[in-house]
Amino acid sequence: MDEKEFNAGIGARVRAARLQAKMTQEQLARRAGLTRGSVTNIESGAQAPPPYRLALLAEAVSVQPADLLPSLAQASPTSGLPAEWANAVRSVMSAADEQSSSPLDDLPDRWVDAVASVMTAAEENGTSHGKS
User: Fold this and answer.
1) Are 7 and 48 in contact (CB under 8 A)?
2) What is the pLDDT of residue 92?
3) Higher confidence at residue 123 or residue 22?
4) What are the E-state strand segments in 41-113?
5) Where are the domains of the chain?
6) Which whole number is the average pLDDT over 118-131?
7) Which DSSP helix (H) or strand (E) runs through 34?
8) Nearest to 119 by CA among 52, 20, 35, 33
9) pLDDT at residue 100, rounded to an integer
């Protein structure tokens, strides 16, 4: 895994933790003392948070900082998911990337809920880290 993939992994985990906490990017930004733009950039993988900011983000969503770090062996947020789930996640993520402002905040709630459900199910089934 290269640095770009690693940063994207952090972003995916921050996004998943934020959705699990049922927060908007704006709410997470306020709780962590960041701007919404920084949260958007971190979630998209365009910006890697320094350790202190990573700890602030983790505290804001009630997880440990290590929970936001991907394994160096992790291939992608959809690796290990059943093909149908992986396609659904990629479809929603693609639609989110096409949005001009904050990726998931502007999507219909049912889409955000669907992504959160898939990511939660993947975690519970041990498939989010390439396990099957």
Assistant:
1) yes
2) 78
3) 22
4) none
5) 3-68, 83-124
6) 61
7) none
8) 20
9) 46
CATH tag, 3-68: 1.10.260.40
- For 48, the token pair is 């890697």
For the chain, helix, strand, coil in percent to 5 are: 60, 0, 40
CB atoms within 10 A of CB 105: 19
pLDDT tens track for 49-87: 999 999 999 999 999 999 999 887 655 666 666 777 777
Burial class (CB in 10 A: 0-12, 13-18, 19+), 27: middle
Q: Which amino acid is at 100?
A: S
Residue 41 structure tokens? 């950039």
Measured CA to CA, the distance from residue 101 to residue 64 in angstroms comes to 28
CA distance linking residue 35 with residue 25, whole number of Å: 9
Number of CB atoms found within 10 A of residue 64's CB: 10
Q: What is the pTM for the complete model shown?
A: 0.57
Tokens read off for 93 = 């993520």
List Cα–Cα distances, 2 to 6, 15, 119, in angstroms. 6, 20, 23
Say if residue 109's pLDDT is above 70.
no
